[in-house]
Amino acid sequence: MAPLDPHSFTDSTHTLTTHIALSLYFDFPSATIHGAALFTLSSPHSGPLCLDTRSLSIHRVLSPSTLSPLPYSLSPFCDPIKGTHLSLSLPNDAALSSFLITFSTSPSSSALQWLSPPQTFNKKHPFVYTQCQSIHARSVFPCQDTPAARIRYSALLNVPRELSAVMSARHVDRRLPVSGEGYSNLLPNGFNSLWCSETRVVEEFDMNQPIPPYLFAFAVGELGFREVGPRTRVYSEAADGVLEAAAKEFAGTEDMIRQGEKLFGDYEWERFDLLVLPPSFPYGGMENPRMVFLTPTVIKGDASGAQVVAHELAHSWTGNLITNKNNEHFWLNEGFTTYAERRIVEAVQGEDRAVLSIGIGWRGLNDEIKRFQDNLEFTKLKTNQEGVDPDTFYSQVPYEKGFQFLWCIERQIGRPAFDEFLKKYIATFKFKSIDTETFLDFLKANAPGIEKEIDLVLWTEGTGIPPDAYEPVSNLYTKIVSLANEFKLGRMPREDEVADWQGQEWELYLENLPKVVEASQVFALDARYRLSESNDYEVKVAFLQLAILSKCRDFYGEVEKTLKEVGRMKYLRPLYTALVQGIGKEEEKILAKRVFAEARDCYHPIAQGVVESIFAKHL
Ligand SMILES: [Zn+2]
């Protein structure tokens, strides 16, 4: 037994799955999916085979040709991070290259959020969507849930007729169900007979490019769409105004794809569609191939919403094409993507915007290094994640320190050479999963002598921020930082100084203020600029965080409203932490606990877990 990945039961000596054919029956009233999955292995295998599961009921494991049962066992205990280990035993006398499993998800599946009609925009129909990164695909179907194992898949989604489905895959057809198709006659609990009910429809998908399991994704609800480019549609619930606002916000997407192709090579995924989810979506965006998932908070009518799309688009080359082998090398995914995102932003929105984004990232990185001062392991690029829950230790470090490392290499070898290097790197490793050592070997081979100029070991294995990291310089960035420094001396920015500021300028300004200021200063700032009521959540949350830490209780009503409106972890994490961290804050702690109890059901299970871990640490 030699594990391949600290977050998976997959054994490095076992054969990997190359294709999964799924038939999924969505039972909204019980928030359950009943499924059949046909697994194809890269070569015939006999003996034990380990799969990951979490909160799944396994009904049967069968040989697909004879439908005879195959022995299996589930570990008696559920590992709090990895879940439950499903061990199959494939026959020793006749090695199998495929097997079949029937199973059901549970309402507490960590990847799935089931929304009742009142929790959606249109209030009429239920909605369900996945968030599988980092290790949640195993709560939707059994799998070798490690990015080292890339799979192709096909899927039949059996859903109520009034709903439709999207996936991180090519849409093949929407049609009437066919009796017995896709082993649906083996589904449990009578759901096989409901498969062909006249109230149901089948949405058929096919994904013929190999992806790591964390990029498996679907959403089912009352969906509508608008065309915004030759290979881009924006989808969302078919509710008043949402689609129109989204189509307007993302009108420049094709321009960004073309810039990306110029910089990094052909766009390999054919479609680049966008799905705007309900406000409970826990991330800003999720780079599901062909169908990026987005929080509605990115629709704000300025350049920064497009930057989230630029980031998810950049993943089409870095992360989705070249994937980290396991989460210990996550910086290869997010560091490269942050770098690529800023190159796209620079090309589309200009250098000043890109520098502003680097500046916000630099602030964020410095804050994270402080956050982990008692746990320096998480300030490294390459981390040891044995026994570590990736959701709990999710941070900006792989993004921003990874960005700084690549930016440092760019400065050293020059941009033209680095651009060539990137194209070659992507072409060499596309559709592969690699580790930090593979990247470093490739770097040293293609930029001879680089290790004499840059301390590659310090960057990838050292803690904190290396001395050759770089705070960006631009007139706009410098001006904002100096205005923030003046605030510390009691001077508020004048109206003419902030007249053309967008959300990002305010975000950078607020992030450069001291964590705690005089309450009177907080009130004065809000009286003049109404930041507590900003439509831009980045600005609003940065301001409310300052208000909480400065004990300005007048703003707690707005804090509560915000925590109940959105489920994006980027906002929940700082607000809940500001409320419960530190001593002598009984009122704040009571508020945090009450608001969480009332808002919990509106958060995705991953976000619920993150808030619970903040409480466990501080309460
Ligand atoms: Zn990303």
Automatic annotation (TrEMBL):
<keyword id="KW-0482">Metalloprotease</keyword>
<protein>
    <recommendedName>
        <fullName>Leucine aminopeptidase</fullName>
        <ecNumber>3.3.2.10</ecNumber>
    </recommendedName>
</protein>
<feature type="domain" description="Peptidase M1 leukotriene A4 hydrolase/aminopeptidase C-terminal">
    <location>
        <begin position="475"/>
        <end position="615"/>
    </location>
</feature>
<keyword id="KW-0963">Cytoplasm</keyword>
<dbReference type="InterPro" id="IPR045357">
    <property type="entry name" value="Aminopeptidase_N-like_N"/>
</dbReference>
<feature type="active site" description="Proton donor">
    <location>
        <position position="399"/>
    </location>
</feature>
<dbReference type="InterPro" id="IPR038502">
    <property type="entry name" value="M1_LTA-4_hydro/amino_C_sf"/>
</dbReference>
<feature type="binding site">
    <location>
        <begin position="131"/>
        <end position="133"/>
    </location>
    <ligand>
        <name>a peptide</name>
    </ligand>
</feature>
<feature type="binding site">
    <location>
        <position position="311"/>
    </location>
    <ligand>
        <name>Zn(2+)</name>
    </ligand>
</feature>
<dbReference type="InterPro" id="IPR049980">
    <property type="entry name" value="LTA4H_cat"/>
</dbReference>
<dbReference type="InterPro" id="IPR015211">
    <property type="entry name" value="Peptidase_M1_C"/>
</dbReference>
<comment type="function">
    <text>Aminopeptidase that preferentially cleaves di- and tripeptides. Also has low epoxide hydrolase activity (in vitro). Can hydrolyze the epoxide leukotriene LTA(4) but it forms preferentially 5,6-dihydroxy-7,9,11,14-eicosatetraenoic acid rather than the cytokine leukotriene B(4) as the product compared to the homologous mammalian enzyme (in vitro).</text>
</comment>
<dbReference type="Pfam" id="PF17900">
    <property type="entry name" value="Peptidase_M1_N"/>
</dbReference>
<dbReference type="Pfam" id="PF09127">
    <property type="entry name" value="Leuk-A4-hydro_C"/>
</dbReference>
<dbReference type="GO" id="GO:0006508">
    <property type="term" value="P:proteolysis"/>
</dbReference>
<feature type="active site" description="Proton acceptor">
    <location>
        <position position="312"/>
    </location>
</feature>
<feature type="binding site">
    <location>
        <begin position="568"/>
        <end position="570"/>
    </location>
    <ligand>
        <name>a peptide</name>
    </ligand>
</feature>
<comment type="similarity">
    <text>Belongs to the peptidase M1 family.</text>
</comment>
<dbReference type="GO" id="GO:0004301">
    <property type="term" value="F:epoxide hydrolase activity"/>
</dbReference>
<dbReference type="GO" id="GO:0005829">
    <property type="term" value="C:cytosol"/>
</dbReference>
<keyword id="KW-0378">Hydrolase</keyword>
<keyword id="KW-0645">Protease</keyword>
<dbReference type="Pfam" id="PF01433">
    <property type="entry name" value="Peptidase_M1"/>
</dbReference>
<dbReference type="GO" id="GO:0008270">
    <property type="term" value="F:zinc ion binding"/>
</dbReference>
<dbReference type="GO" id="GO:0008237">
    <property type="term" value="F:metallopeptidase activity"/>
</dbReference>
<dbReference type="InterPro" id="IPR001930">
    <property type="entry name" value="Peptidase_M1"/>
</dbReference>
<feature type="binding site">
    <location>
        <position position="315"/>
    </location>
    <ligand>
        <name>Zn(2+)</name>
    </ligand>
</feature>
<dbReference type="InterPro" id="IPR014782">
    <property type="entry name" value="Peptidase_M1_dom"/>
</dbReference>
<dbReference type="InterPro" id="IPR042097">
    <property type="entry name" value="Aminopeptidase_N-like_N_sf"/>
</dbReference>
<dbReference type="InterPro" id="IPR016024">
    <property type="entry name" value="ARM-type_fold"/>
</dbReference>
<keyword id="KW-0862">Zinc</keyword>
<dbReference type="InterPro" id="IPR034015">
    <property type="entry name" value="M1_LTA4H"/>
</dbReference>
<feature type="binding site">
    <location>
        <begin position="282"/>
        <end position="287"/>
    </location>
    <ligand>
        <name>a peptide</name>
    </ligand>
</feature>
<feature type="binding site">
    <location>
        <position position="334"/>
    </location>
    <ligand>
        <name>Zn(2+)</name>
    </ligand>
</feature>
<keyword id="KW-0479">Metal-binding</keyword>
<dbReference type="InterPro" id="IPR027268">
    <property type="entry name" value="Peptidase_M4/M1_CTD_sf"/>
</dbReference>
